[in-house]
Amino acid sequence: MYEYLFAHALSQRVTAHVQACYECQSNKPRRHKPYGDMEPIVTPSEVFHTCGVDFVSGVPRTADGFDAIMVVVDKYTKFAFFIKAKTTDTAETVARRFLEHVFPTTGLPKALISDRDTWFTSEFWECLTKSLDIKLRMSTAYHPQTDGLVERMNQQLEIMLRHYVAIDQHDWDSKLAPLAMAHNAQRQASTGQSPFMLGFGREPSLFPLKDSVLAASDKPNATVAGLLAIHRDAQESAALAQERQERAYNERHMKLDFKVGDSVMVDVKNYRMRLDPTDQARTKLAARYIGPFKVKRRIGELAYELDVPEAQAGVAAEGGLDELRVKGFLGRRPNVLDDNGKFDYLVKWAGPAPTWQADTELPGLRWAQRRFEKRARTELELRRLRQRDTIILPDGQARADALLAASQGA
Questions:
Q1: Nearest-5° Cα angle at 340, 336 to 344
Q2: Which residue, of 155, 157, 233, 370, is most buried by count of CB atoms within 10 Å of its CB?
Q3: Residue 68 forms beta bridges with which residues?
Q4: Residue 290: how many other CB atoms lie within 10 Å
């Protein structure tokens, strides 16, 4: 058609149409750079001031029942603790492990950085950190870069363990202590010093040296002035390293700010809302984004609170995000408030009982509408689905009658 027809400002019109097209916005992947400049956490100026906490899970269960590793890293010195743990640990147990293994060496930190695991979001952990005057900083959901220092340490620990565990991997817990010392004695690129040196003012004694070797060493004595100079150099090196990381990160990302009231689409990969879990074969062709949702307020530089429809918010409050999935539609009725082809659908949820919901409150569920229409034609032998008819599938009739009786009784 382009060879035979002409349209004024075709490119601009097509671009505007695509930007306003719901199907285009929900189904097409993003080809541009990720949004958001780096928002680095300020490096503390004190040793053991801020610690990151995370867990490595999925390791083989030992004879004592340990199947996880608790990793604690000091943000200033990069000093690390590797503590064997269990995936069944409660928040109280995690706190006890911290006080038994980390506190005797570091004392109480002023701040803890963690992800939003249930261990750290529990009321017990919140009360504990508050009573000890420790500021708890948790990463934004699905944005683990906030806890990036510990995430990288987890990767490094897994690599080291792969080198040293036995073939059947039963002895990984016996390797944690020597691997922790190996890391803490290793000079770090960001500070130019080993974590042990920054924490204790000297390098660790790893093997015996003869007096002649020690006498020939040209390293300065660990005087107060020498330690202060080492820490100044480490702070400058850490600042330069953070500046390089921030610059490299920002080059691979693009800046974008939303305002209150803006409409945004949300990536569904973190919410498990694509399809009925019994129909995973169609996940490949499911919508990539849902929405649009309105921005209610800004949280920090990289997070926003969205105005989620009450129907979805209610389901999330009852069953959590993993249950906020639509299993399908059991019925359809005309929306009495809108005579323009809008409907209320009897929604079968994964967790709660079916409820009537307006289709405007159910974005990204065209697959459920198409499946309902196909079932209605087949099971009810309808050749045409008239807009003014209320249509209920056989397995939804009892629930529809119950909802109708409840509404009339009210």
A1: 45
A2: 157
A3: 57, 85
A4: 20
**H helices present in 91-194, as ranges:** 91-101, 103-106, 118-121, 123-131, 148-164, 176-184
β-strands 303-307, 50-57 pairing:
unpaired
What are the Cα distances from residue 138, in Å, to 88, 128, 244, 282, 375?
21, 15, 24, 35, 46
Over the stretch 126-171, which tens digit does the pLDDT of each residue have?
Answer: 888 888 888 888 765 544 455 567 777 888 888 888 877 766 677 8
- pLDDT over 60 at 50, yes or no: yes
User: Domain ranges in the chain?
Assistant: 1-32+254-302, 50-249
CA distance 251 to 140: 22
SS3 84: strand
| CA 350, 354, 355, 356 torsion-angle sign | positive
The residue assigned the tokens 């300065």 is: 220
**Residue tagged 């879990």 (tokens):** 277
Interval 258-276 mean pLDDT: 61
Secondary structure letter of residue 2 according to DSSP: T
**What is the three-class DSSP state of 309?**
coil
Nearest Cα to 198, choosing from 207, 208, 188? 188
In terms of Cβ atoms closer than 10 Å to its own Cβ (0-12, 13-18, 19+), residue 172 is: buried
CA 291/CA 309 separation, integer angstroms: 10
The neighbouring-strand residues paired with 348 are 328
E strand or H helix at 328: strand 326-334
What's the farthest any 2 CA atoms get from each other in the chain? 98
Out of 34-48, 229-243, 318-332, pick the least confident.
318-332
109: helix, strand or coil: coil
What's 50-249's CATH class? alpha beta
Which residues are CB-neighbours of 373 under 8 A, at least 6 positions away? Answer: 385
Q: Are strands 111-114 and 135-138 parallel, antiparallel or unpaired?
A: parallel
Task: Copy the structure tokens of residue 162.
Answer: 């792969």
